């Protein structure tokens, strides 16, 4: 479960960076895409659907992290109760 939580954290991090890079480029003309080389930026600007995929992944990762963290907390509480008995 901890590995799943770490993977979800990585997915959330990368998705948020990608989405915020699009926002920064389109609305403010700064951010990650402003400093990356042109071939990399052109790949992302040609495939604009990636920003929506990144946003969707970020939302799904947040929801999944909530569920996983609740299960981890319950599992830890059970192990503490069983250890005390």
Q: Characteristics of this structure?
A:
85 residues, mainly alpha, rod-shaped, transmembrane helix, transmembrane
Characterization of this structure:
GO terms for molecular function: peptidase activity. Keywords: Hydrolase, Membrane, Protease, Transmembrane, Transmembrane helix. This is Membrane protein implicated in regulation of membrane protease activity. It comes from Microbacterium ginsengiterrae. Helix 1 (2-28) runs antiparallel to helix 4. This protein has 85 residues and is mainly alpha-helical. The protein has helices spanning 2-28, 32-35, 38-46, 49-84. It has one domain (1-83). The chain has four helices and no strands. The two termini are 25 Å apart.
Residue runs with pLDDT of under 50 for 5 or more positions: none
Number of helical segments?
4
Name the overall outline: rod-shaped
Radius of gyration: 18 Å
Helix content: over 70%
How many domain regions?
1
User: Helices and strands, in N-to-C order?
Assistant: HHHH
N- and C-termini, Cα separation:
25 Å
Mean pLDDT: 92
The counted number of beta strands is 0
Largest sheet: none
Give the structural class.
mainly alpha
Strand content: under 5%
